[in-house]
Design goal:
Helix content is 27%, strand content 17%. By secondary structure, it is an alpha+beta fold. The longest helix has 14 residues.
Length: 146
C-alpha cells in the first residue's frame, strides 16, 4: 500500500532496526520500546487487521511468533515474561493500519507497562456466558456443546 509506513519499512524505503525477515514476515524494533526488545512482527503482504487475514496467511504470520519469542528470551536472559498484543481497529488502539503483532518483553512489574482487563465476573451469570458463547459459535458455524 502506497502510504503505509510499515509497507515502506518492508520495502526498505524507511530504515528500521530489523530483527528477522523471511518470505512472509518482517520483524523490527518498535521505535517506542515500551521495554527493551519491544518487537513488531508484520506480514509482508499488506493486511489492515486480523479481520482481513485469510486463514493460510494468518497461520504463516502467527506461526512466526514463537521463533521471535524464543529469540527475545535468548537475547534477554533477564526477561521474566512476554506480552503478545495485536490491536485491531481504532477503538482497540490500532494506530498503524497494517496488521502488526507487538512482542513486549517483561522484566519487572515496575516497568511502566500495563494491561488492565478489570474483573467483570460479577456482571455475568452462567446463563449469560452460555448465551454469549452460542451467539459466537453460531457466527462461526459451530454447534455449541455443553
Amino acid at each position: 500500500m502506497e502510504n503505509c509506513i510499515f509497507c515502506k519499512i518492508i520495502a526498505k524505503k524507511i530504515p528500521s532496526a530489523k530483527v528477522y525477515e523471511d518470505e512472509e514476515v518482517y520483524a523490527f524494533l518498535d521505535l517506542s520500546q515500551a521495554t527493551p526488545g519491544h518487537t513488531l512482527l508484520v506480514p509482508k503482504m499488506h493486511v489492515n487487521d486480523v479481520f482481513e487475514y485469510e486463514e493460510k496467511k494468518a497461520s504463516e504470520v502467527f506461526a512466526r511468533i514463537p521463533k521471535i519469542a524464543r529469540a527475545l528470551e535468548k537475547a534477554f536472559p533477564d526477561m521474566k515474561g512476554l506480552n503478545i498484543i495485536n490491536n485491531n481497529r481504532e477503538l482497540a488502539y490500532q494506530s498503524v493500519f497494517h496488521s502488526h503483532i507487538h512482542l513486549v518483553p517483561r522484566y519487572s512489574r515496575e516497568d511502566n507497562f500495563h494491561i488492565h482487563f478489570g474483573d467483570h465476573s460479577d456482571q455475568y451469570t452462567a446463563a449469560d456466558l452460555k448465551k454469549i458463547a452460542k451467539r459466537i459459535a453460531a457466527a462461526i458455524n459451530l454447534k455449541y456443546s455443553k
